[in-house]
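Sharing a chain and its predicted structure for anyone who wants a worked example. Both blocks are below, sequence first, tokens second.
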Amino acid sequence: MSARSRLVLVIVGVLAVCAVFFFMFIKGRQTELTEVRDKVTAEENRTQELESRLARLQQLQKNAPQLEARLSEMRKFVPERNDVPNFIFQVQQAASQA
């Protein structure tokens, strides 16, 4: 075997080892890296959603006294018990008298 043939075989062998290394280690890690990046993106989106929800809840908590006051005002206009049949009778009676 000549020196040139040996050199070609050594180069082919080194390239084969590099190709095996690439496909076994680097390519597998790239897939794992892609999965991790997708998870990070999903968690960043979830964090942003939770932060906006927190801000909305904090605003509601800040406005709670005004909302409670408004609710108590509205409750004055709503009857405490179900008087719909009586109300209908009263409306009908008022219409008959008119």
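Comments welcome. The CA atoms of residues 65 and 97 lie 45 Å apart.
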